[in-house]
């Protein structure tokens, strides 16, 4: 089986072409994503034909669960399908479980230098995310491992919970990630972002991804952190989100759409016997 390894600021994926042959990706993902005995990745990105958009992207986490959307993943996906001539345009629609996303490739010297993605409108009501409760889930209280935390949860493609901390790089927060992800207030579980506000245009963030664990980057997490920080009165609508290996620029525009801009890298292509 032919594959391509890609990453967006360290959040890495295996791209598989599922347009002509379907597989049991839920069973395949843990094997291929294993970092010692497989290729190694945070998840799979599956290329499929679409009746609604130019192409379809499926995201399967390393534990075999399927995600609605992935911000870093769609930038890598868009670069790959453009480079391979599958979608020979710099702007196109990608069908996902979260709806149709619209990446725009930034071309410099004939190469894809970056990707801006219209991530659509954020969902803010508890019933939409979902979170147990009513109204918007802004600055609420949650106790985990005996520690009381203040959290805000929004949905940009997938549910994300933002918690402000003094030092997002402190590993103690990642040790709480699984318990927050599986807290009873989140019926479909949640991704967890720990962030520090540097100024009104800058955040530092680390992410514990639903179905994956700690990751080097999370595009939907950066989008959600930007939205949540504006709702909490801590930043403006346009912010840089600094993660472990670089920066994502997020704009929550006046049209209520969230726009994410960042890099995407193709690492290598190979074949693996199953």
What does the model show?
- This protein has two domains: 2-119 and 262-271, Diaminopimelate Epimerase, Chain A, domain 1, CATH 3.10.310.10; 140-256, Roll (Diaminopimelate Epimerase, Chain A, domain 1), CATH 3.10.310.10.
- The protein is built from four helices and 18 strands.
- The protein has helices spanning 25-33, 71-83, 171-181, 219-231; strands at 2-8, 11-17, 43-48, 55-61, 66-67, 94-96, 99-108, 111-118, 140-144, 147-156, 158-164, 191-199, 202-209, 213-215, 238-243, 246-252, 258-262, 265-271.
- The chain has an 18-stranded mixed β-sheet that branches.
| Fourth-level CATH superfamily of the largest domain | Diaminopimelate Epimerase, Chain A, domain 1
Rg from C-alpha positions? 18 Å
Question: Could you tell me the strand content as a percent range?
Answer: 35-45%
- The helix count comes to 4
Globally, the shape reads: globular
First-last Cα distance: 7 Å
- CATH architecture of the largest domain, please? Roll
Main sheet overview: 18 strands, mixed
Low-confidence runs:
none
CATH class bucket of the largest domain = Alpha Beta
Order of helices and strands: EEHEEEHEEEEEEHEEEHEEEE
Query: What is the number of domains?
Result: 2
Total strands:
18
How much is the average pLDDT? 96
Structural class: alpha+beta
- Could you please say which CATH topology of the largest domain applies here? Diaminopimelate Epimerase, Chain A, domain 1
Measured as a percent range, the helix fraction is 10-25%
């Amino acid at each position: 089986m032919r594959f391509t390894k890609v990453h967006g600021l360290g959040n890495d994926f295996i791209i598989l072409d599922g347009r002509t042959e379907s597989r049991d990706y839920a069973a395949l993902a843990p094997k291929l994503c294993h970092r010692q005995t497989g290729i190694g990745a945070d998840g799979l990105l599956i290329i499929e034909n679409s009746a609604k958009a130019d192409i379809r992207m499926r995201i399967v986490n390393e534990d075999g669960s399927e995600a609605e959307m992935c911000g870093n993943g769609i930038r890598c996906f868009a670069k790959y399908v453009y480079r391979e001539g599958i979608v020979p345009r710099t702007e196109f629609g990608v069908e996902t479980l979260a709806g149709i996303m619209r990446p725009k490739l930034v071309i410099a010297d004939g190469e894809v230098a970056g990707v801006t993605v219209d991530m659509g409108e954020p969902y803010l009501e508890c019933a939409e995310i979902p979170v147990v409760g009513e109204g918007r889930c802004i600055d609420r209280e949650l106790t985990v491992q005996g520690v009381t935390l203040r959290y805000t949860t929004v949905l940009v493609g997938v549910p994300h919970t933002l918690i402000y901390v003094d030092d997002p790089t402190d590993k103690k927060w990642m040790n709480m990630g699984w318990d927050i992800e599986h807290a009873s207030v989140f019926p479909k579980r949640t991704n967890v972002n720990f962030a520090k506000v540097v100024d009104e245009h800058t955040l530092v963030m680390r992410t514990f991804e639903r179905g994956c664990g700690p990751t080097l980057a999370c595009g939907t997490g950066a989008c959600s952190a930007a939205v949540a920080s504006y709702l909490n009165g801590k930043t403006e609508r346009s912010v840089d989100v600094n993660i472990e290996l670089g920066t994502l620029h997020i704009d929550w525009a006046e049209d209520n759409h969230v726009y994410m801009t960042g890099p995407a890298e193709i690492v290598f292509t190979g074949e693996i016997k199953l």
